[in-house]
Amino acid sequence: MIDDIETIDEFLAHRTSEVAEAVREAAATEIMPRFRRLAAHEIDEKSGPHDLVTDADRKAEAYLTEALVKLLPGSAVVGEEAVHANPATYDAVRGEAPVWIVDPVDGTRQFVHGDPGFCTLVALAQGGVVRASWTYAPAQNRLATAVRGQGAFLDGVRLRSGSPAPGRDLEVAASHPFYTTDEQKRALLGLQAEGVRPRSCGSAGLEYLQIAQGLLDATAFSWEAAWDHAAGLLLVEEAGGAHYTLTGEPFRIAGGNTLPFTAARDEATARRVLGLLSGAA
Predict the structure, then answer these.
(1) pLDDT digit string (tens) for 12-28?
(2) Do the beta carbons of residue 243 and residue 235 sit within 8 Å?
(3) Which residues share a beta bridge with 152?
């Protein structure tokens, strides 16, 4: 049983490569063989036509659940598909035991349509704090990793998000209107400002990776499912970025956030986007 933070530190000091290998194997075994080969019976709707799940999602999550608990005995797994089947599973994010937060296919819509813009997201957290993350885009063979306090890396190269060039429009990836309430739509209208170029987001995990790379300036998201955000937010933080909810507090993976929230390349950009969202809310 994992009892203390030192034990997790030891795990992260010696076994992160084994986690990366498990993520790669899950994708190679359960996701990529189905990419651009999905049959109609392998695709289902969850809450509606814009919320899809496939056999790849289910089987990759099952693969990772077994592999990750084996790597870290005593840990729990909070996976998107498991929570859909049993919402009480999400409670582990708020507990004190180590928890793996898993999105087996982030960007299922893209996956279903044969678009390579999807990824597998894994984060390791305890007590509401994300300690490490793995973002793997199997169709692009790119792996981004982060360990709290040790930096963010893409395929072994350190990531530094930097700051937007002065005078250039900010590019912001925002929640699609399908996934927003009327109040959130009003807040997101704040992005329709001079000097800002908002667009609808794709895979949340890959948008966070673009921020960490300095290729995207910010996001503005209206939902708080930990599997979509935990891995990417740590990646952004460790690359030099910041994130805030409408109350001006950092996003909490345990929930209870005031939405929408932003993540950005640097502190100043995060505060600027937050001001636009707050002013329109």
Answers:
(1) 999 999 999 999 999 99
(2) no
(3) 146
